[in-house]
Automatic annotation (TrEMBL):
Pathway: Protein modification; protein ubiquitination
Protein name (database record): U-box domain-containing protein
Keyword list, A-Z: Transferase, Ubl conjugation pathway
Record lineage: Eukaryota, Viridiplantae, Streptophyta, Embryophyta, Tracheophyta
Annotated U-box domain residues: 13-87
Job description of the protein: Functions as an E3 ubiquitin ligase.
GO MF term set: ubiquitin protein ligase activity
UniProt-listed InterPro entries: ARM-like, ARM-type_fold, ARM_PUB, PUB22/23/24-like, RING-Ubox_PUB, Ubox_domain, Znf_RING/FYVE/PHD
Protein source organism: Mikania micrantha
Catalytic activity: S-ubiquitinyl-[E2 ubiquitin-conjugating enzyme]-L-cysteine + [acceptor protein]-L-lysine = [E2 ubiquitin-conjugating enzyme]-L-cysteine + N(6)-ubiquitinyl-[acceptor protein]-L-lysine
Length: 414
């Protein structure tokens, strides 16, 4: 570690002791470990999470992983940021400290004890939900105290109804990923699955979305193909998920959770036709341009999955915007999105010659030829080449011959 100041590109010098010894970046939340060394909280937590048990600087063993906030250093860093704001340095905000583990244990005990009053248990759950929503750090602390086990017990304690206790536990569980064992405990019990599916028709959109989120979590974490197929075979599950996905845009979480759940369900091949029957094709195409990047990728992956069955091709082919939208997306969102869009177009154009003409009219040739030249995935390029060959008879030859570059690429492809 240098003993002086290091120049930065922004023209300001940063004291070396303001830098985290691990990341070498300005510390935003300095904490002290058992050896007395100070690190940025995120860096030392990542260090420990990857299995390291020694102090990065001293190499001494860390027998106690308690992190103590270095308030004095954090205030000095904030003052330095303010003093150098003319150089474009922004003041780091005062970080919220993670919830006290003792408080978490107390709240879980209060919520899980049937000897407590209903009001006391509900109050504890409400407090836990607020803490879990507050930060990733809080969720990490809560998850290390067997919270999911307690919450699962509360959620399914009264599966013949939907009490406030059940719904509050559901809301908290929807914020956490489940382990494989926890997914199995839910998916292997048909009564529990039926209960979650019944909540998809609840009067509250929050309850419906929370239930969809937990179901998606369970389906994704269940290794047994038979159990996944059994879940997706329940009546109304696809209809309920599509209705969530089609909820007004004023509630964006519905779209995010809806497409995740629909994609998870469509991974079960034998029941994809149920998604088509529920109207998934129309809602996905109508909402495709409203998704955020990762959700758009899932939506396009779902389109490609549904286009692998005849019913899916027919449904997407009947929507006037399917082909133009898929063509427009190529090379616009991400490599994965491009691959899924090209795959869906290949299935559609293989199924119906009419769609080949539509794709060419929408400008697919230019998009595909650019795709072949790009740094996109090899799978995407193979799909593009196959689609170009399929569309060869539909090419407007004059327009292609007008570009020497495209002509050379075409010669290479064929």
């Amino acid at each position: 570690m240098p003993g002086g100041l290091e120049p930065l590109d922004v023209g300001v010098q940063i004291p070396y002791h303001f830098r985290c010894p691990i990341s070498l970046e300005l510390m935003r939340d300095p904490v002290i470990v058992g050896t007395g060394q100070t690190y940025d909280r995120g860096s030392i937590e990542s260090w420990v999470a990857t299995g390291n048990t020694t102090c990065p600087v001293t190499r001494l063993p860390l027998t106690d992983f308690t992190l103590i906030p270095n308030h004095t250093l954090r205030r000095l860093i904030q003052e330095w940021c303010v003093a150098n704001r003319s150089y474009g340095v922004e003041r780091i905000p005062t970080p919220k400290q993670p919830v006290d583990p003792v408080m978490v244990r107390s709240l879980l005990n209060q919520a899980g004890s049937e000897s407590n009053t209903r009001h006391a248990r509900l109050s504890a759950l409400s407090r836990l939900r607020g803490l879990a929503r507050d930060s990733d750090k809080n969720r990490l602390v809560i998850s290390t105290h067997n919270a999911r086990e307690v919450l699962i017990g509360i959620l399914f304690s009264e599966i013949n109804g939907s009490s406030e206790l059940n719904l509050e536990a559901l809301a908290i569980l929807s914020l956490f990923p489940l382990s494989e064992l926890e997914c199995m405990l839910v998916s292997s019990d048909s009564n529990r699955i039926s209960y979650l599916i019944s909540l998809l028709s609840h009067s509250s959109i929050d309850v419906r979305v929370n239930s969809a989120s937990l179901l998606e979590n369970v389906i994704g974490g269940t290794k047994s193909p038979e159990q996944r197929a059994e879940i997706s075979n329940h009546d109304e599950i696809f209809n309920c998920i599509v209705r969530i996905l089609n909820y007004p845009l004023t509630y964006p979480r519905a779209m995010k959770v809806g497409i995740k759940a629909l994609f998870a369900l469509c991974l079960v091949k034998q029941h994809r036709h149920k998604a088509v029957e529920a109207g998934a094709a129309d809602v996905i195409i109508d909402r495709l341009q409203d998704f955020e990047k990762c959700d758009a990728e899932r939506a396009l992956a779902t389109v490609e999955l549904l286009c692998r069955i005849p019913q899916g091709c027919v449904a997407f082919a009947s929507h006037a915007l399917t082909v133009p939208v898929l063509v427009k997306i190529i090379l616009k969102i991400s490599d994965r999105a491009t691959e899924y869009a090209a795959g869906a177009l290949l299935s559609l154009c293989t199924a119906a010659e009419r769609l080949q003409t539509e794709a060419v009219a929408a400008g697919v040739l230019t998009q595909l030829l650019l795709l072949v030249q790009s740094d996109c995935t090899e799978r995407a390029k193979r799909k593009a080449q196959t689609l170009l060959k399929l569309l060869r008879s539909s090419w407007p030859e004059k327009s292609v011959r007008n570009s020497d570059e495209f002509a050379c690429i075409v010669d290479v492809i064929f």
